[in-house]
Write a structure and sequence with these properties.
CATH superfamily of the largest domain: DNA ligase/mRNA capping enzyme
Structural class: alpha+beta
CATH architecture of the largest domain: 2-Layer Sandwich
Strand content: 15-25%
Number of domains: 6
Number of helices: 24
Bound molecules: 2-(butylsulfanyl)adenosine
CATH topology of the largest domain: D-amino Acid Aminotransferase, Chain A, domain 1
Radius of gyration: 29 Å
């Protein structure tokens, strides 16, 4: 359902009410839901619009105006009602909400506080003399369920506060992404179905009794009763002082803002940070900071008038799994990919999502035709999280796993979680050759898809090394290969023979080593001989290679040993440079080697947006090579350690983050001037 959806008849209205009631029941019950959050919000808005136009037809069970859509129940009365929040969905709606509040107050709001809207479950935690005595869910807002037994596993909600005070802390309990993964690993290990997404996981965990395994959750406090007189930002600081967790410990910390412009800026910042946060948020909450303003504004039956939620687009959507494709990668890995009924998530149409590996499909118990939860955040590859088992119709079909390699028909090695064609990279000779000839590897012009297929199918080329022994006569036997093209291709191959070590290494297509890692490995060891002589420990000394990846790289290197011998015999990849290994051995973990010379000496540099001017033709890899030639360290994410951001056109969240952290920002043109000496 989209934003424009409207209800025309009493029947449509009644259907919409019953769908919403069912969805709210599932959402506040076990945390599952047959509707995505965006769809639910749109449905409730359509119901509200109908009720405004037909006030005499309002059904008693309508979810509008009720906390938790009227769904949840509980038997322990709350000290004061646990309210919900009204929503706004745009800058304009926020402005008109704020104007309404100021009209009601008859004065401007003294200050705002802007904080993340945590996507979990509201709880009230009662402390007597600093000791935790009872924890309640929100329930219907007037009474909640007693979940005190679950509190022990909630990080940030201490059994004892730092001072012996009587207070009721209110806040959100959620599963961080890490806790969600851990919870599902524990569940599947115990034969239980995985949680569909973190919120249903939090709901299920808080209510669970006598479980054989422990699932940790996290509390974020955002309100308190019993600490009178404190403005909101001060109240949050006091909650933290007492020893409970608040969002102040996160990058999306609450911020006091003087004007609505500042509020809007903070909303944008939090939205930009969203994908990188270690937990889910579904919006940003804007509150009048001053107690005086809050008291003067008061509350309605459902929500306070002094706070509002600016909802963000949902990152989880429900759609249908139409099929599963099995693709063979460059290294022979056979990877399943979900084909989905197209669904728009956060402005992007998602048609495919990753399914990791066959074991993962089995763990999640997926079937073709299932309604599934799909997650997408920022640049993250969309993934299928879980089926909505309750929504099954019986028409769902099992997912068929391939019995032979879908590319070459040879056997499949299923001994590891990721299945692989027994022929490994040979299964993919064509793809391997195309990859090796690519712009960021050996950059062999004239060796595209068609030529690679010809060369492999005629038997002239079985792997990368064969390229360097091709003769003019051999090339001329190929169809549509004239003398000029043959000479051009031979010249391009000749140029490729002297490509620097990082490019040759990258061309090998070793698992886990893309362009960045290849540059680091090449710089670290200085020569192919040194790389080949390295043991797992030496490899793990390269920035970003953990012990696990080091073992994998080592075994891949053993695999390609004959290929490396033949390449060396052809004079490919034999360049030697000064290794940085000695220097990097003394560095802090996580910091790559930088040289002490060059205009970027010692600096971590991030590139974002499209490059222009002298840099227009450079691929991201070539930019990173340039940064390293100029003495810097190329990095892909902005942090406090970033020394410089080169921001071209259409720079997005990285730029916002750099601005927030005060990282210097340069245009591509200025950067080109700075590193002019090192531009090849
Ligand atoms: S304030 C009177 N602040 O969102 C205070 N709520 O959709 C009302 N939520 O029921 C709540 N993060 O469960 C507040 N920073 C935050 C929040 C937050 C998440 C939840 C809370 C509330 C729901 C309303």
């Amino acid at each position: 359902m989209n934003d424009e959806a409207s209800l025309a008849t009493p029947q449509q209205y009644a259907d919409a009410v019953s769908t919403a009631v069912r969805a709210a029941g599932a959402y506040y019950g076990d945390g599952s839901t047959p509707l995505g959050d965006d769809e639910y919000d749109a449905l409730v808005r359509a119901i509200e619009a109908y009720e405004r136009a037909h006030p005499e037809e309002v059904l008693p069970e309508s979810p509008t105006g009720k906390v938790a859509g009227g769904a949840a129940v509980g038997d322990v009365p709350h000290s004061t009602p646990m309210l919900s929040l009204d929503n706004v969905f745009s800058v304009e709606e926020l402005e008109s909400w704020a104007a309404g509040l100021e009209r009601r107050l008859g004065r401007p709001v003294a200050a705002w506080c802007v904080e993340p809207k945590l996507d979990g479950l509201a709880v009230a935690a009662r402390y007597r003399a600093g000791r935790l005595t009872q924890v309640l869910t929100r329930g219907d807002g007037l009474a909640g369920e007693d979940i005190t037994a679950a509190a022990e596993a909630v990080l940030g909600l201490p059994a004892r506060l730092a001072e012996p005070v009587d207070v009721e802390l209110r806040g959100e309990v959620l599963l961080t992404h890490e806790q969600f993964e851990a919870a599902n690993a524990a569940r599947t290990a115990h034969g239980a179905t995985p949680f569909a997404h973190p919120r249903s996981g939090a709901a299920g965990t808080l209510r669970a009794k006598d479980r054989a395994y422990r699932v940790e959750l996290t509390f974020f406090g955002y309100d308190a009763h019993g600490l009178p007189g404190l403005d909101h930002a001060a109240l949050l600081a006091r909650i933290a002082e007492l020893g409970a967790n608040t969002a102040a410990t996160t990058e999306a910390a609450p911020l006091r803002c003087a004007t609505l412009e500042e509020v809007q800026r903070r909303i944008d910042e939090i939205a930009a940070l969203r994908a990188a946060l270690p937990f889910g948020i579904d919006g940003v909450v804007i509150k009048a900071d001053a107690v005086a303003d809050q008291e003067a504004a008061g509350s309605g039956s459902r929500a306070p008038r002094w706070a509002v939620a600016r909802k963000l687009q949902a990152q989880h959507k429900v759609t249908r799994l139409l099929g599963v494709e099995w693709n063979v990668g460059r290294t022979g890995i056979i990877a399943p990919r979900a084909v989905l009924e197209p669904v728009v998530i956060d402005g992007v149409t998602v048609t495919y999502a990753t399914l990791h590996n066959p074991a993962d499909i089995e763990r999640r118990g997926l079937m073709i035709g299932d309604q599934v939860f799909v997650y997408r955040a920022g640049d993250v590859i969309p993934r299928v999280e879980a089926p909505l088992v309750e929504e099954r119709t019986g028409a769902e079909q099992p997912i068929v796993f391939p019995e032979v390699c879908p590319r070459c028909g040879d056997a499949i090695d299923t001994s590891e979680q990721r299945w692989r064609c027994v022929r490994g990279r040979a299964c993919q000779a064509v793809a391997s050759v195309i990859y090796a000839a690519g712009r960021d590897q050996l950059d062999i012009e004239g060796l595209g898809g068609t030529r690679a297929v010809q060369l492999v199918e005629t038997g002239l080329v079985a792997d990368l090394a064969d390229l360097f022994t091709l003769t003019r006569e051999q090339l001329l036997t190929l169809e549509r290969m004239g003398e000029t093209s043959a000479d051009k291709l031979l010249a391009a191959i000749e140029t490729a023979r002297t490509r620097p070590l990082n490019r040759v290494f990258c061309a090998l297509g070793i698992r886990g080593t893309g362009r960045t890692m290849s540059r680091r490995i090449a710089a670290h060891f200085g020569s192919m001989a040194a790389i080949r002589a390295a043991d797992a420990e030496a490899l793990a000394g390269v920035d970003g290679i953990g012990t696990e990846k080091a073992a994998m790289v080592l075994s891949e290197l053993a695999d390609v040993a004959p290929l490396l011998d033949r390449l060396a015999a052809q004079g490919v990849g034999i360049q030697v440079t000064e290794p940085t290994a000695a220097a990097s051995a003394q560095e802090q973990p996580g910091e790559a080697a930088t040289t002490d010379a060059g205009p970027l000496a010692g600096q971590s540099v991030v590139v974002t947006g499209s490059m222009t001017g002298a840099l227009a033709e450079l691929s991201r890899n070539a930019m990173n090579e340039l940064i390293e030639r100029a003495g810097g360290k190329a990095s892909s994410s902005v942090s406090k350690k970033t020394g410089l951001l080169v921001a071209g056109e259409k720079a997005g969240s990285k730029r916002a983050k750099a601005e927030e952290l005060g990282v210097p920002i340069m245009t591509p043109e200025d950067f080109a001037t700075l590193v002019a000496e090192h531009l090849a």
